[in-house]
Design goal:
disordered C terminus; 9-stranded mixed β-sheet
Length: 345
């Protein structure tokens, strides 16, 4: 049975095949930060992908939340479907459209070559995809590898303390009854971190936050798993957000067009890669393009597609050779061949 397999076993699938193609999966022992797309809820689908991937791989998945509504939305995990090609090609247009609306315009779309090649390779390399329009089969959800815990604290520092204690305690309990060879990777999910929490922005609070975020990061390094959290920039002070950003290994941002006068063709949001664990082998700063992608949130799936944002240019401009090569974008930002080989395409 084939599946989209990571050659480097220190990486685990994100659950979204497009994101896997871009970054080669998440590295074990890291903290992943996704900046929410308020007021829409696309970020919840990314958490669902991540958790569903863990559940079907029989990995232990832990969810920590203080928001009952968020928990209820997220635990409805997507269906594992073998209809990969059908789902990937459903309702995704192949025509090139130019948008004159708003402040953002597409310079060109590589004539959809890159997108088509990604689709072709994904179809060849995996035997399942998650369908967001249906619920995960009972055969997976009944395996008792999904745990939900409530976060009771209301103070930001206390929330971090509680998370550190609970994650450490839960992981210890989980691994203590297993033989070493039976221990699989674990996934820890924390939606809406620090939601409705007011930090006292003083030197003591900042110092305490640095201390506990450092402990939190060391905890992530010590467990055989990945910690995935989301935050909303609108409900926290910039200094607090900057600290969380600094201590995270991966940072992604979702920017919804829902309440914006900007529009980007058929896309619902922009997806940006702000931070990866390692940037290497850059020829020059010019080679590091802004890693911004158009995101389409459909009923069954989320598509992430590379777009160029800038002044319109001649549509007859010849496509550069490097633009049509079917390589993960991560090769451009993470050092070439080493990362390209993360996937068995």
């Amino acid at each position: 049975m084939k599946s989209l397999t990571l050659v480097n076993k220190n990486y685990q699938s994100t659950g979204n095949l497009f994101l896997d193609h871009l970054i080669g999966g998440f590295s074990i022992g890291t903290i992943v930060l996704l900046v929410e797309d308020s007021p829409t809820k696309i970020h919840e689908s990314f958490l669902k992908y991540f958790m569903a991937e863990g559940v079907v791989k029989e990995q232990k998945v832990f969810l920590y939340s203080s928001n009952p509504m968020a928990k209820q939305n997220i635990i409805n995990l997507p269906y594992k479907s073998t209809q990969v090609e059908n789902i990937l090609n459903t309702s995704k247009g192949t025509e090139n459209k130019q948008s004159g609306q708003g402040d953002i315009k597409i310079a060109w779309r590589y004539e959809n070559i890159k997108y088509s090649n990604v689709i072709e390779n994904i179809v060849k390399s995996t035997d399942y995809i998650f369908d967001l329009s249906r619920s995960l089969q009972d055969i997976y959800t009944s395996q008792n590898n999904f745990s939900i815990s409530n976060i009771e604290a209301t103070d930001g520092i206390e929330i971090l303390k509680q998370l550190i204690y609970q994650i450490s305690n839960d992981y210890t309990k989980y691994t203590s009854v297993l033989k070493e060879e039976e221990i699989k990777y674990s996934r820890f999910v924390i939606p809406n971190l620090f939601e409705n929490v007011n930090f006292k922005e003083n030197s003591k609070t900042i110092l305490d936050l640095k201390v506990y975020l450092n402990v939190f990061k060391n905890l992530a390094r010590s467990i055989n798993g990945i910690i995935y959290l989301t935050v909303g920039k609108e409900y926290m002070k910039k200094s607090i957000f900057n600290l969380i950003y600094y201590f995270s290994d991966y940072v992604f941002t979702l920017q919804s067009f829902l309440l914006s006068n900007q529009k980007l063709e058929e896309y619902n949001a922009l997806f940006s890669i702000n931070k990866l664990p390692k940037l290497c082998v850059l020829k020059s700063p010019v080679d590091l393009e802004t890693e911004t992608y158009g995101l389409i949130a459909e009923k069954k799936k989320i598509i992430i597609e590379k777009v160029d944002i800038g002044p319109e240019i001649d549509r007859n401009t010849k496509v550069k050779e490097k633009d049509v090569k079917d390589i993960p974008t991560s090769q451009a930002i993470c050092g070439g061949e080493k990362y390209t080989k993360n996937f068995e395409f």
